[in-house]
Design goal:
single chain, 247 residues, 7 helices, alpha/beta, five-stranded parallel sheet
Length: 247
């Protein structure tokens, strides 16, 4: 099987050396063809070497790693970001469906990330995913999420989401005009919207947007939402819900 041609981009020599050694020892399917210490050097090297995969540090002088999207009309290579970033940035990676490694690098996590690239290279959607990541990291605001359904990806505006309902290992995302079924649990979305006061967890199976509440029934513990959608209200969440809609 053809090896994955890879480029490593990090402004710290020691970090480059560590990752190079880990790849040599634990990822024989990867052929490291170049190491770069900044984004501009990486852009030139990528155009020359045409790699399948780029390991890209985020925090570097002059240009952050995610700004690489601005130097290409089309991103025809996979990216695994390497970062020591905070929890907010981790949520940004999660919602844009872009893989990342946290420093110090965990060997098993590295193996899994490389394996995912090898088995499901998805170059067509890279530009969209990178643009979403870049916007989220720069604005510190989640305005859109990337939703994968039946092999297709959709950019969904957060303010169009009415509710998210958990059903077994899947979730249904209800928007003002569509419904998506995704293989993510409700905790995933609750984590993404941690800093967004518009979303309230009202039941083990429901996360709803306050702006789309029409009314609710205290007697049968149900919440009527936009588009005729009805969400369940847990008796254990009732006081928290009432406080949330008053704030």
């Amino acid at each position: 099987m053809e090896k994955l041609k890879a480029i490593l981009v990090d402004d710290e020599e020691s970090a480059r050396d560590v990752l190079e050694n880990l790849l040599l020892r634990f990822c024989p399917e990867v052929e490291l063809v170049a190491k770069c210490n900044n984004v501009l050097q990486a852009v030139d090297t990528i155009k020359k070497e045409q790699p399948h995969l780029v390991f890209l540090d985020i925090e570097m002088p002059n240009y952050a790693g995610y700004e690489i999207v601005n130097f290409f009309k089309e991103i025809n290579f996979e990216i695994i970001f390497v970062t020591a970033y905070d929890q907010y940035a981790i949520r940004a990676f999660e919602l844009s469906a872009i893989d990342y490694l946290l420093k110090p690098i965990d060997i098993e996590r590295l193996k899994v990330a490389v394996s995912k690239v090898k088995t499901q290279i998805d170059l067509e959607k890279n530009s969209q995913r990178l643009q979403l990541l870049s916007t989220t990291l720069q604005t510190k605001e989640v305005k859109n999420i990337l939703v994968s359904e039946k092999g297709n990806q959709y950019l969904v505006a957060v303010d169009s989401i009415v509710a998210i309902e958990a059903q077994e290992s899947y979730c249904y995302i209800y928007t003002t005009d569509k419904k998506y079924m995704v293989s993510k649990n409700l905790k995933h979305f609750e984590t993404i919207f941690t800093d967004n006061p518009s979303f309230v967890r009202v039941h083990k199976s429901w996360l709803i947007a306050k702006e789309h509440i029409v009314n609710y029934s205290k007697s049968d513990l149900s919440i009527n939402l936009t588009n005729g959608l009805i969400a369940k209200l847990s008796k254990y969440k009732k006081a928290e819900f009432e406080q949330a809609i008053l704030s």
